[in-house]
Write a structure and sequence with these properties.
Elements (H helix, E strand, L loop, with lengths): L8 H5 L11 E7 L2 H10 L7 E7 L17 E7 L9 H19 L3 E4 L3 E4 L2 E13 L2 E11 L19 H5 L5 H20 L3 H11 L6 E6 L2 E10 L5 E4 L5 E4 L3 E4 H8 L2
Parallel strand pairs: 1-2
Antiparallel strand pairs: 2-3, 3-7, 4-5, 5-6, 6-7, 8-9, 8-12, 9-10, 10-11
Helix pairs in contact: 3-5, 3-6
The chain binds biotinyl-5-AMP.
Biotinyl-5-AMP binds next to helix 2, strand 3, strand 6 and strand 7.
C-alpha cells in the first residue's frame, strides 16, 4: 500500500479542536487489534484521549470474540478513555460512540446513517460501522475504557469475505468515491470529545435524545437474541442505562442489556421486494 494513501496523524491534528481526543495518535500499517494495543497502552498509563489507528487488522474483533474484517481503506481505531462513571454504566460509551459516528457521517456526507442498538451504524439497513467497548475495572470504578470503532470507509465490497457482502456497505460504495479519511477523523474526534464531555457532565439525557433521533429501528417489530434467549416484540426505547426496552405481545416490557437485534418488519419488506 503506497505511503501517501495511509492515514497521516499530523494531517488530522492540523486544526484539530480538541483537548483530549486525538491529541496523541499512534498509527500502524498493520496491527492485530487496535483495541488490544490501546488496552496495553492504557494499562501502562497512556493519557486519556490517546488514539490507536491501523490501516489493517489481522485479528480485528467484534463482540463475543466474533471476527471483524479489517481490510485496507477502512478506519480501524481505538480510543483510551478514563470516564468517571460506574462500571455498570459502561454501555453508555457505546451509545455515545454510535451517536458520534452516525452524526458525523450524516453531517459530512449527507448520508442517512442510522443506529441499530447497541453498537451498529447502518446505511440503508447495511452495516457501515461497528463499535466494541472494553473496560478495565478497579474496585467500584472504571480504571480505563477502550472504545474501538471500525468504519468501512474507502473499502471496496470485494475486499470483504463473500458471506458478509450482502450485509454491509462502505462510505466509498454509498458515495461512489473515496473519502478524505483525515478530514473525517478530525470531525469525528471533535464530536467524540463533545459527547464525551456531556457524559462526564452527567447530561446523558441530551445524548439519549440524539440517540433516539438516529435510532431508526425504534418502533419496529424486532427479534432480539440475548445470550441464549430469543425475545420478540416492539423496540420502544433505550433507557437511562443504555438498555433496550422491548414491548412484548402481552403488553409487558423487557429491558435487555446485551444482544443482537434483527429487524423483522424490514426483513419482511425485503423478502417481498
Ligand atoms: C462489532 O461487533 O460490530 C464490533 C466491531 C468493532 C471493530 C473495531 S475496529 C477497531 C477495534 N479493534 C478491534 O479489534 N475491534 C474494534 P458485533 O456486533 O459482534 O459484529 C460482528 C459481526 O459483524 C461479524 O460477526 C460479522 O457478521 C460482521 N462484520 C465483520 N466485519 C465487518 C465489517 N468490516 N463491516 C460490517 N460488518 C462486519
Amino acid at each position: 500500500m503506497p505511503r501517501r494513501s495511509w492515514i497521516h496523524p499530523e494531517k488530522i491534528k492540523k486544526g484539530l479542536k480538541t483537548d483530549l481526543i486525538g491529541q496523541r495518535i499512534q498509527h500502524f500499517t498493520e496491527a492485530t487489534s487496535t483495541n488490544d494495543i490501546a488496552k496495553k497502552l492504557a494499562s501502562k498509563g497512556a493519557e486519556e484521549g490517546t488514539v490507536v489507528i491501523s490501516e489493517t487488522q489481522t485479528l480485528g474483533r467484534g463482540r463475543l470474540s466474533r471476527r471483524w474484517a479489517s481490510p485496507r481503506g477502512g478506519i480501524w481505531l481505538s480510543t483510551v478513555l478514563r470516564p468517571q462513571i460506574k462500571p455498570k454504566e459502561a454501555p453508555k460509551l457505546t451509545l455515545v460512540a454510535a451517536v458520534v459516528v452516525a452524526q458525523t457521517i450524516k453531517e459530512i456526507f449527507g448520508l442517512n446513517a442510522e443506529i441499530k442498538w447497541p453498537n451498529d451504524v447502518l446505511i440503508k439497513g447495511r452495516k457501515v460501522c461497528g463499535i466494541l467497548t472494553e473496560t478495565s475495572i478497579k474496585g467500584e470504578t472504571i480504571d480505563f475504557a477502550v472504545v474501538g470503532i471500525g468504519i468501512n470507509a474507502n473499502t471496496s465490497l470485494d475486499s470483504f469475505p463473500e458471506r458478509l457482502r450482502g450485509t454491509l456497505t462502505s462510505l466509498k460504495k454509498e458515495l461512489g468515491e473515496e473519502i478524505d479519511r483525515e478530514d473525517f477523523l478530525r470531525a469525528l474526534f471533535e464530536k467524540l470529545e463533545h459527547y464525551y464531555r456531556l457524559l462526564e457532565e452527567e447530561k446523558f439525557d441530551l445524548i439519549l435524545q440524539e440517540w433516539r433521533s438516529l435510532g431508526g429501528f425504534l418502533g419496529q417489530h424486532v427479534e432480539v437474541i440475548s445470550l441464549d434467549e430469543k425475545i420478540v416484540g416492539q423496540a420502544v426505547d433505550v433507557n437511562q442505562n443504555g438498555k433496550l426496552v422491548i414491548k412484548l405481545e402481552d403488553g409487558s416490557e423487557r429491558k435487555v442489556t446485551v444482544g443482537d437485534v434483527i429487524i423483522r418488519t424490514r426483513l419482511y419488506e425485503r423478502e417481498t421486494d
